[in-house]
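Entry:
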Amino acid sequence: MHKQTEPGIQAGLAITLDAHLEEQFDGFNDSMDALFTNSFVDGFRYFVHPPKTVPHLASDEFTVSPNSVAYSAISSDRYVLLPSDQWGNCTDDYPHGIQSDLPYSSGNCLALCKAKYFMDNCGCTPALYNIENRTKECTPYETYTCIDTKLSEHNKITGKLEYQPPSCTHCAQQCNSLVFRAYNSYGSQFSQGAFNWLRSKNSNWTIGHMKANFQMINVFYRDMAYTEYNQVQDASITQLLSDIGGNMGMFLGMSVITITEICLFFSKVFWLGFSKKRRDYMYSKKINEKTHEREVCETVEKMKVIASHGNLSNLVSSTSGVTFKDTNPDENVEFRINLEELAEQLDSDSGYSRTEEGKSRSSIQKY
């Protein structure tokens, strides 16, 4: 088949099949029961799937019977999913314990997983799962015997032995997959022109043999485009932080600064709870602040008392160490006050005594 360059049946693939029903074994006197669903229909099953992949045999099959024509118009869809490191759940690598040169797909992974399961338990692999032809292939009898004796378990409900296939849950969906969808239509009975064309290819084919055994399949693209579906993150890290910050700012009035302050506050609270040294420091700091506040209040009260008695001028005149210099009214007047004696005078007037270390002097200029 050449690569199709335009849509339509004329540019697709046409296959003529010969079933050779005369070679089919159905038992004697039609006594063979139909063991599988495809045994009810004579003909062929076909699958349309990407190259180097295993189709889903249980669901992707199409059937064509003798003396009929099947038309499969193909359209394709591509699915691009996110890997696990981008919040997705797909993969492009085979799980641990499975190695293959085939490109990763969930179908290939399931087939190789079941092949490994049969190889470990039976020493061979059914042809259905031996997609790489690297292991010994089981005959139908070997497969039946192994399943019946080694792979079946007793069902407590039905009381029968039932085959328990491996789950292979570690075979995740592939990140990039191409899916073909077929729109089928069928026609029954070849025309006389079809018989003439077929006999021109091989004169040994009789019309009776062609009616009983021949069927034709036409597979073609209905259009030369495909639909791509991409899985994207609902919100990136930047968008998530922006949404959180916007909602907190709108409803709580919070910003990065307030969040930092809250974190700093709780860190100090935890530090205070776990560190005895920190608790002692905070306690002494609180005591010092109260002492300083009390001293400031006492000083303010003393100044109020002195101001109410009008003793400030008397204190100044009676304090030793005060020097006045006669000057003109327009000139500067300078006088000196001994603050230690002034403090002692204030304490004696207010009834409060205190001891201070050191002496301080101050110069006051009046303009």
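Residues 275-366 form one domain.
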